[in-house]
Amino acid sequence: MLNESLSKSLNDQLNFELYSAHVYLAIAAYCSGESLDGFANFFMVQAEEEKFHAMKIYKFLNDRGQRVTMAGMDTPNNEYSSILDAFEHAYEHEIEVTRRIYHLSDLALNDREHATMQFLKWFVDEQVEEEAMFDSIINKLKRIDKDSNAFFMMDAEFALRSFTPPAL
Ligand SMILES: [Fe+2]
Ligand SMILES: [Fe+2]
């Protein structure tokens, strides 16, 4: 049985994962507006991943006999000065997600809630990948000119990104 405060914090994280999807859809819309369909696809796929993260927590809370509740959402940032600016925003967002996952892990550790600690380990590993991915794209974007062939090649490469949800 999860204690109430840990259960509420997991439910908050479920809602924050959905907010992350919202943040990435707003960035996708910015990219679409710039006619950069590959970058838009990259962020649409990212949004799908975030929804999958939310559903992982949804299932876990249900499995532990907890009642999930949905919350309202803040308006994400819809305007960016460049693709680099959008990726930097995404990277900052992932750093905030990591901070929240670590906080949740601390709560689970305090409660000696081993099943939740085990469950959160997947998210800890995922955040390492998320931060590394955005960091590496930002480094590349900083090196290329926004009207260069390399930039449009990146757009074409990101058009191929897809997401097949694994089992929850
Ligand atoms: Fe996530
Ligand atoms: Fe993420």
TrEMBL record:
Keywords: Cytoplasm, Iron, Iron storage, Metal-binding, Oxidoreductase. It catalyses: 4 Fe(2+) + O2 + 6 H2O = 4 iron(III) oxide-hydroxide + 12 H(+). The keyword tRNA processing does not apply. GO terms for cellular component: cytosol. Fe cation binds at residues 17, 50, 53, 94, 127. Pfam families: Ferritin. One of its GO terms (biological process) is iron ion transport. CDD domains: Nonheme_Ferritin. Its EC number is 1.16.3.2. The keyword Ubl conjugation does not apply. It comes from the Bacteria. GO terms for molecular function: ferric iron binding; ferrous iron binding; ferroxidase activity; identical protein binding. It is found in: Cytoplasm. PROSITE patterns: FERRITIN_LIKE. Residues 1-145 form the Ferritin-like diiron domain. InterPro entries: Ferritin (IPR001519), Ferritin-like (IPR012347), Ferritin-like_diiron (IPR009040), Ferritin-like_SF (IPR009078), Ferritin_DPS_dom (IPR008331), Ferritin_prok (IPR041719). Iron-storage protein. Belongs to the ferritin family. Prokaryotic subfamily. This is Ferritin.
